[in-house]
Design a protein that fits this description.
23% strand; alpha/beta; 40% helix; binds S-adenosylmethionine; 6 helices; 7 strands; seven-stranded mixed beta sheet
């Protein structure tokens, strides 16, 4: 296992403990739900709930999450651009953007977080794979156009932002 590629889930769990996160939205559950599996296994906050959006739901992902109390997580089988999903969300402390990695999708994922009012004042957005040129460009445009405040960590593939 490459610890650099895999460090996203460790970073998220550390942050959950630091910030006492109650709710996460992950955009892009993945074929095996690796990050959500790790978070549910390692972040033991009583009232914690994680929401996930995934258009291409895989049996393996469902199987990996089936060992957890199903009141701890909700999976929306759809695309992150579908605004109806966000109406069902309570205030989210931490959004993880790790879905479609193209410029338009990442920009729209940041935009939809702002427009749908799911964020609290202190909510944070984590973006994965920021070493991609398209993702970097989407973030720069979100800073310029959406007033997204973003922290760039050089030589790192994870970034943190907020509105
Ligand atoms: C890199 S994987 C996610 C990995 C996962 N976050 C993890 O660390 O375990 C990206 C996922 O985003 C999904 N995806 C693609 N387009 C999407 C969209 N528009 N909305 C939500 N998810 C999307 C893909 O099907 C894929 O499963």
């Amino acid at each position: 296992m490459n610890p650099f590629l895999d460090s996203y889930k460790y970073f998220v769990v550390g942050l959950c403990y630091q910030l006492k996160v109650n709710t996460i939205l992950e955009i892009g559950l993945g074929h095996d739900a690796a990050a959500v599996d790790y978070i549910l296994n390692n972040y033991k906050e009583e009232n914690f709930h994680i929401y996930c959006i995934e258009p291409f739901l895989n049996k393996l992902a469902l199987q990996n999450l089936s060992k957890y109390d199903n009141r701890k997580y909700t999976i929306f089988n759809g695309f992150s651009q579908d605004k109806r999903i966000y109406k069902e969300l309570l205030k989210i402390d931490l959004v993880l953007i790790d879905g479609d990695h193209h410029y338009e999708s990442v920009f729209n994922d940041i935009k939809i977080c702002k427009e749908t009012n799911i964020l609290e004042n202190n909510s944070i957005i984590i973006i994965h794979d920021t070493d991609s040129e398209q993702i970097e460009r989407a973030i720069l445009d979100a800073e310029r156009i959406l007033e997204f405040k973003y922290l760039i960590f050089p030589k790192c593939n994870i970034g943190i932002g907020r509105f």
